[in-house]
Amino acid sequence: MWNTFHELMKQSIYCPRPNRTCSGDYSSLYYGDTPAIVSFISCSLSLLGSLITVLPYLLWKDTRTGIRRIITFLAVADFFTAASYIMGNINFYIYKHNSKTAGINTACNYFDQICEVQSYISSWASYSSFWWTSILALYLYWTVVKGDIKKGERYFPLYHVLSWGSPMLAMVPLLVTNSLGYSYVAAAGWCFIRGSRFDSSLQYAQLDFEDIVKILAGGKAFEIGTYAWVLLMYGAIHCNIRKKKKDQTPTSINGGVSVLLRQIQKKLYFIPAAFIILRMWGTIQFIVSIFVFNFRKVNQDGCIEKGYRDLYFSLAILQCIGDGAQGWVNCILYIFWSPKIRQRLILNPLSNCCYHVATQILPTTSRHSSALSPVNSPSPKSVFVSVQHVGEEDGGPKENRGGVEGEQEGTSALLQTFSREEDEERVPLIASEKT
């Protein structure tokens, strides 16, 4: 057991310090409870959103297409990311309570142990989420641009190795070198990469070259690379769609494909935009930190200039919202904006529930209107149009086709997840007109 805070620092343990005294034009970097509260709300929504996103894959076999599988595994990664951040929020409040009752030494020791575990889990889950986001972009590129659905399917074992296994290995060096821990600089009050200088009065206000390398290795470099990859892949998809629309002919086949492509193009704008807007705040904070701490915007008491403190606080709030929001934002993109998934997962159960409640309250009226029962009404079509079934309807083989057929099949596959209800219903008609 260590007795003083200085001894705790020598043991490479650090905890939040709300009692740093600052004066004049300088302010403490302590954010208070606001980031933790904002993070808890956003991450709780993501837990719920991730579970909802997984449901279609678990409930209906006809939804288990390649794109939906990737979206499902992305939701699993987002679930663990949100759960780890909630773990950090709870650890923060336990530390605040224990520091008042058991003393800062005991509280800090317990806090640091949990902090290291949370840092590893959140870094691994974020790494995995970046992988699945990149894989989704590549899969859509193969489907739309190359018209090669089978190519994306055959690499699923490799996807799992890269997405789940490589992040574990990437975090091992940071774990064994005791680099995971609490830092104001590294993240918005979460546990990530601890500072390397513990013998200075600026324990949490340091960001030297070693810290920068550790932060980049902990996932920041891969995150920035994912931004570039997503922009590249979706940019290529948009260019390909524009080319297809320019090259269309008056035939009914290409005319139908053109209508579908316009709808696809609109929805594909939201995927990279949502990812980058949500995740960029932590990257901006990291870049600002390099400037602030290398140009000595902190004084010898570890206090930062008030203008930069306000900037840090704003970025911290935005990061707390964005980093924990991927689960519920992806739920909106892939569930609530998919009309037939929304119909099957939400509207139909609500309709059935309301009908059964009505039969209990108004049994006589319900008997006369039994013909309108959801049970007797035709069930909605599946949200997905299986690419394999499209191939079988015209007697063609399931393997990849070239030319117009390959492009149409790629378009049909993309519509399984992202297209509007009326566009999905056109896919069998287009497929039946193939020559």
Automatic annotation (TrEMBL):
PROSITE patterns: G_PROTEIN_RECEP_F2_4. GO terms for cellular component: plasma membrane. One of its GO terms (biological process) is adenylate cyclase-activating G protein-coupled receptor signaling pathway. Residues 390-404 have a biased composition (Basic and acidic residues). Pfam families: 7tm_2. It is a multi-pass membrane protein. It is found in: Membrane. Gene3D superfamilies: Rhodopsin 7-helix transmembrane proteins. SUPFAM superfamilies: Family A G protein-coupled receptor-like. Keywords: Membrane, Transmembrane, Transmembrane helix. Residues 35-193 form the G-protein coupled receptors family 2 profile domain. InterPro entries: GPCR_2-like_7TM (IPR017981), GPCR_2_secretin-like (IPR000832). The keyword Coiled coil does not apply. Residues 409-418 have a biased composition (Polar residues). One of its GO terms (molecular function) is G protein-coupled receptor activity. It comes from the Eukaryota. This is G-protein coupled receptors family 2 profile 2 domain-containing protein. It comes from Amphimedon queenslandica (Sponge). The lineage of its organism: Eukaryota, Metazoa, Porifera, Demospongiae, Heteroscleromorpha.
